[in-house]
Design a protein that fits this description.
alpha/beta; Aspartate Aminotransferase, domain 1; 7-stranded mixed β-sheet
Length: 410
């Protein structure tokens, strides 16, 4: 939300608040040394209906702010909606030109992109989430759109969704490309939200809906998220201390704490320059090839648990996902691997809202995944040697008695 505090912010605030229902223009003096003069005009169907004009040096603090607020309160702004920013208009013949735009809008995280989308583009009456869902997205939704009704649809152990029967035009459904497996598109006339956080940035969306994602899953970056489309977000101020800690990290514990910091406090901010440079210069074809090789090595050689399903040649694995026979064995293996400096993850513990909804949606597989799933790293920074180390460590754990042996000797 654009909160107006200072006289210097009035023009941007007027454009943000009144457009596209009204047209807001500035008439700055074209000469040098005239930066203190202002003239802001509000038009309705090419007719000027209001004007704010003067010299900033003659204003007392907040004077123009109050005048702008009074003006907006007197106007009927109902019916307006946010709009994407396009650059199709003929540019002027001048030395100062509008900045070039791409088909992507960048954010500091995937959740920031999702939050901005919910705050500024969408107002769904109801949103359907998969039962297998990251906590962060649910928390963003409840914090950003507390008035939107949340419902769930099932996802089974093979990561196949069971879509709701029908959706109205004012209802939304979010679907996820889990761990790099390409998801089918929900057959609906509602609003589509496509989470591409588990795929490389160069992968094209599979739907015509809103596509967003995080960049820290695939790339070694301190921050980063994106929303496909030309939008013009008003970024919040942030010191990005979680990104600073990732850059400063000396071991895995620092990275884990940085993730906790992001979960605790996040804002709708821009991506860091170093992160953006890393993403745009990455060779996604090389990344996908290496990740496929690593995942297939684990798929063929790991002797604990059961893999979900193989990846297609066209897919890029985020992780190698496996189900153990019990949560006790899963947790024992995870603890042992950590002692060997092999760090795995669990995707995902069930959100409390899902547990509250279990009488109205089949959560059986979601709860089973929470209890049995373990995800192994297959980063493009690793090769066969690291994958062999994972397999060897799992073999040692298994030979030592698995869950019955708390911490087998290396």
């Amino acid at each position: 939300m654009f909160e107006l505090h200072d006289n210097s912010e009035v023009y941007c605030w007027l454009r943000h608040t009144l457009e596209p229902h009204y047209t807001v223009t500035a008439e700055p003096s074209p000469g040098y040394f005239s930066e203190w003069h202002y003239c802001y005009r509000i038009s309705d169907s090419n007719h000027i209906i209001a004007e704010l004009m003067g010299d900033f040096r003659d204003l007392y603090p907040g004077e123009l702010v109050q005048a702008a607020r009074t003006l907006v309160e007197s106007l009927d702004c109902r019916g307006g909606s946010r709009r994407q920013v396009h650059s199709s208009a003929r540019i002027p013949l001048a030395s100062r030109l509008p900045p070039e735009r791409t088909g992507t809008t960048w954010f500091s995280s995937g959740r920031a992109a999702f939050a901005w989308l919910l705050q500024n583009e969408l107002r769904p009456r109801r949103i359907y989430l998969p039962t297998l869902i990251c906590w962060s997205l649910v928390n963003v939704l409840t914090r950003t759109r507390p008035d939107t009704e949340i419902r769930f649809y099932p996802v089974n152990r093979q990561l196949r969704p069971i879509w709701p029967d029908t959706l109205a035009d004012d209802e939304a459904i979010l679907f996820v490309h889990y761990f790099g497996y390409e998801s089918p598109v929900p057959p609906t006339s509602g609003i589509l939200l496509e989470d591409c956080s588990h795929r490389p940035y160069s992968c094209h969306p599979v739907s015509d809906g809103y596509c967003f994602g995080s960049l820290r899953k695939i790339y070694r970056v301190a921050d980063g998220g994106f929303l496909r489309g030309r939008f013009n977000p008003l970024y919040e101020s942030d010191r990005h201390l979680d990104a600073w800690l990732r850059q400063q990290a000396s071991d895995w514990r620092d990275l884990r704490e940085a993730e906790n910091m992001t979960d605790r406090h996040w804002k709708i901010t821009d991506i860091g320059s170093q992160s953006l440079s890393t993403v745009l210069t990455a060779d996604d074809s090389v990344i996908a090839q290496r990740r496929l090789q690593n995942e297939r090595f684990l798929y063929n050689h790991l002797k604990v648990g059961n893999a979900v399903k193989p990846y297609d040649d066209s897919e890029c694995p985020l992780l190698h996902h496996r189900y153990l026979p019990s949560s006790t064995e899963r947790d024992s293996l995870r603890k042992y691997l950590m002692s060997q400096r092999i760090f795995t993850s669990i995707h995902w513990p069930a959100h409390p809202l899902l547990r509250q909804a279990q009488d109205s949606v089949d959560c059986t597989d979601a709860f089973a995944i929470e209890e049995l799933a373990l995800s192994f790293p297959v980063s493009q920074d690793f090769g066969e040697r690291e994958m062999t180390s994972i397999c060897d460590a799992c073999d040692r754990w298994h030979r030592a008695g698995s869950a019955r042996f708390g911490n087998p000797a290396a």
